[in-house]
Amino acid sequence: MTEATKEAILEALKSVQDPDLHQDIVSLGFIKDLALCDGVAKFTLELTTPACPVKEELREQARAAALSVPGMKQVNVELSAQVKSSLPAGNQMNGEVRNVIAVTSGKGGVGKTTCAVNLALALAQTGAKVGVLDADVYGPNVPIMLGVAGQRPGGAADGKTIVPIPAHGVKVISVGNLVEDGQPVMWRGPMLHRALQQFLQDVLWEDLDYLLVDMPPGTGDAQISLSQLVPLTGAVVVTMPQEVSLTDVRRAIGMCQQVKTPVLGIIENMSGDIFGTGGGMKTAQTYETPYLGSIPLEPSVRSGGDEGLPVVIGDAKSNVAEAFRHIAGELAREISIAAQSKPTLPTLEV
Ligand SMILES: Nc1ncnc2c1ncn2[C@@H]1O[C@H](COP(=O)(O)OP(=O)(O)OP(=O)(O)O)[C@@H](O)[C@H]1O
Ligand SMILES: [Mg+2]
Hints:
It contains eleven helices and 17 strands. With 350 residues, the protein is an alpha/beta fold. It has two domains: 76 residues, GMP Synthetase, Chain A, domain 3; 246 residues, P-loop containing nucleotide triphosphate hydrolases (Rossmann fold). The strands form five sheets. It has an eight-stranded mixed beta sheet, with helices on both faces. The protein has a three-stranded mixed beta sheet with strand order 3-4-5, with helices on one face. A two-stranded antiparallel sheet has the order 1-2. Helix 1 packs across helix 2, helix 3 crosses helix 11 and helix 5 packs parallel to helix 6. Magnesium ion binds next to helix 3.
């Protein structure tokens, strides 16, 4: 009987393609620690995100491919993930932040903050390292929704660095945690820019796979400042299902184009009987933008936010929580694609 070899296994694994990156899992460098003894193989499949929606399918395909090699009796596949950075090296952030995603919309009140916190928690649940930056200095709602209102961030020994506040497994920073309660925040353009700069450069983010930035309503100073301060992976546009939302989305996408930020996808929020359903998907088609999914209009979403226990963790088994997890997976997928196609510096040929 033929002895299986590691080379034969790798050859067989080349038949398995990553559906998003359109390359085989061997060429992508996903196969790690391949060990083989007496027809029993073991290896790790290292994906580009722990939130990969098809990770179990890929594991099974890899297992079956390796098992198809003559002489193989058993194959064990471990899953792991290494999130790739979509940002250029040497960016100004304090720590290793691999992806920065703005959560935005064409108008207020559509659920940006709700989506930002729930998606952050859903990504963290998969094992990703996640931060939330509240860029809404005019009406910072993130602290309430993540249950850290009234808490102060710590300071590091150097007296300059701000340590983000831990909340349900993610790291948070918001102006709401830096000003006295109830104090009106009257920011002008330059102050806003300085505040965002501090949040990116002076906050000790350390090691983050995903930093979600909750944007203020509208399209203006904050978007411009943010895009000047940090090279964004892209933006997620939150919209409501009605046809009339189309013009708002157009404005949001126009803003992204103006500041050269790719649109990673559209989320339809508050979907259901009252506002209808399907507008988000149509809009995504119109703009040839990925449609990430829809979130139903559900009282538990609002109460979860009010109580500081977002529905993804407060009612993890609900359909709404599942909808957020689905969107988090789709978003992670788009980010992986963006990181893969990140323009690399030209190499010098001699
Ligand atoms: N799917 C949903 N079902 C029910 N309530 C929701 C849903 N999404 C958001 N809400 C509620 O709608 C209100 C507005 O949501 P949110 O604050 O997230 O919007 P926003 O776009 O961040 O608003 P702003 O533009 O003021 O920052 C909140 O009270 C929130 O709890
Ligand atoms: Mg908000």
